[in-house]
Amino acid sequence: MTPARFQSWAVRQALPLWSENGFDSQRALFHERLDFNARPLPLPALRLMVQARQIATYCRAALRGDCPAGDMALRCLAEVERRYHRADGAAGWVFSLAPDGRPADRRRDLYTHAFILFAYAWAYRLSGDPGLKRHAAGTATELETIFHTSGPGFMDAVPPHDAIRRQNPHMHLLEAWLALYDATGEENYRARAARLVTLATTRFIDPDSGLLLEDFSADWQPLHPAGRNRAEPGHLLEWSWLLHEYLRLCAPGDAATIRQVAGRLHLTALAHTTGIMPLVIRNAVTQDGRVVDGGTRIWPQTELIRSLGANQSAPVSSGIMPGILAHFATHYIPSHLNGGWIDRLNADGTTPMDHMPASSLYHIYGAVCDLTEGHGHRDAAENLSHSAP
């Protein structure tokens, strides 16, 4: 599979599948799952995170001219605002809705708030509607109030599930701040991004192994004894790509140091792959190199594609993309699914899945965009059609 064929598959099959079968036009909300015959699967709750990812994806696809579903995405965002924001009368966004439209889970979740901010960034780029920019600013203020802590970073959830602090929602919040800075040019988003980059480079990364750890105590110390902490190579790749985005958009004074960190994350992730060609990103390892989850998911493979594009100067990155794309096409997007995908594979190559989750499209289309536009020149293509000031 070539990058052009990957784009063609996404544009001609995957995007239409989820804007047609994957969209409930009566409720103006996206389905969370389709079965392998592309039929919606009913669930007891619809998560805001999934709605936000789909909104952002289709706004971006409309900007690129890949799918004429921008109006549908903006309609969904308006419905999401009405149904999820302050749905129980309190500040912030509820986590999920029941089939009757009432809140199913009222908790405030940092990961979810990051994605609604990300959706606002892409919706504003598409529409230029100043109201969307105001809503994003209001949500940013709510987030910093709801999830506030006395130190760096934020609470994972309110009320909290436990005392653990996790890097993952902070990673996606950085992605949202960067998208909002790119969309609006407002300095406050750049400053917010800078604070998260500092947190990541000073607390998340184990200096000995080079791994970016997942779980921490309330004061951002690794949760377990040295060597036993969990890391996900896919997240190393995602952080590497995001740090390159930060360099591209924000041109910080410590660019050389951040570039070095991004490069080491990329190479460390590759050192923890299957060790065969094509490289396959396994789910989780520990600091001492033990594989604690030898299965794979589709999203770490898409983050490998993106990180390879951002780290083209890395010696092991040269020339391996064709094999990775061929493996991806064979194992994750088989032709009989007609635009669908296999989200998970066990360590033996079998799949435990009987459906496809909507949430994967955000990762897949992000990889398509990076492959076809190039990491450093993405804006030139998007800005041709972007109406926001």
Rg over C-alpha atoms, rounded to the nearest angstrom = 20 Å
**CATH class category label:** Mainly Alpha
| Percentage of β-strand residues | 5-15%
Strand order of the largest sheet: 4-5-6
**What number of structural domains do the residues give?**
1
Counted by DSSP, the helix tally is: 13
Might you state the CATH topology name?
Glycosyltransferase
Number of strands: 16
Please bin the fraction of helical residues.
40-55%
Pfam families: GlcNAc_2-epim (PF07221)
InterPro entries: 6-hairpin_glycosidase_sf, 6hp_glycosidase-like_sf, AGE/CE
Family: Belongs to the N-acylglucosamine 2-epimerase family.
GO molecular function: isomerase activity
